[in-house]
Amino acid sequence: MLRSPLPELVCQILAGLAAVVFILREFDVLKFPLLQNARLVPQFVAMTPFWGSVQFGAEMGTGMRTYSPTGLPHIMALCLLLLGSWSDALLAGAGFALARALMLLTFLLARDKMAADKAFDFTLPKMKLLFVLAFVPLLSVLVVLR
């Protein structure tokens, strides 16, 4: 883990500052592109069967290979890197996987796929405040209540 060479207070300050920056980005106060690798399945997955699949799965699982409309996963990744334990990381990964699965399941169960796609495109950006407010308690547990 990265946090071992840094004092915990320094890690808390860095994570808190990063959270503020990404939350300001959520509300368009700051504008910068997110770090992401938005490409389709690369050829190396087929060429290196085991490690290619592991690397691609890790990139997909962390959200760093998909188009990401929000910076909230980036805050979570940085908080886990600086302050999290292995169990925190595993729980965050399970929660991330569940959320991605629920979104896909919602789309698959929709009667009108075009309407569901339109809802994702137009409704989700309007819910930024709700997502940020839901994220704050988790962030405070990871950063402040250590």
Tell me what the structure shows.
- The protein has 146 residues and is mostly helical.
- It is built from seven helices and no strands.
- The protein has helices at residues 8-26, 44-47, 49-62, 72-83, 86-109, 113-123, 128-143.
- Helix 1 (8-26) packs antiparallel against helix 4 (72-83), helix 1 (8-26) runs antiparallel to helix 7 and helix 4 (72-83) runs parallel beside helix 7.
- It is globular, with a radius of gyration of 17 Å.
- The mean pLDDT is 77.
Report a brief summary of the structure.
With 146 residues, this protein is mainly alpha-helical. The protein has helices at residues 8-26, 44-47, 49-62, 72-83, 86-109, 113-123, 128-143. Helix 1 runs antiparallel to helix 4, helix 1 runs antiparallel to helix 7 and helix 4 runs parallel beside helix 7.
Task: List the SSEs and their pairings.
Elements: H1 8-26, H2 44-47, H3 49-62, H4 72-83, H5 86-109, H6 113-123, H7 128-143
Helix pairs in contact: 1-4, 1-7, 4-7
Supply database-style keywords.
single chain, 146 residues, mainly alpha, 7 helices, 68% helix, 0% strand
SS class: mainly alpha
Q: Which outline best applies? A: globular
Helix content: 55-70%
Order of helices and strands: HHHHHHH
Mean pLDDT: 77
Query: How much strand?
Result: under 5%
Count of individual beta strands = 0
Oligomer: single chain
Number of helices: 7
- Tell me the span between the first and last alpha carbons: 16 Å
* Main beta-sheet strand count, sense and barrel state: none
Radius of gyration computed on alpha carbons = 17 Å
Poorly predicted runs of 5 or more residues:
none
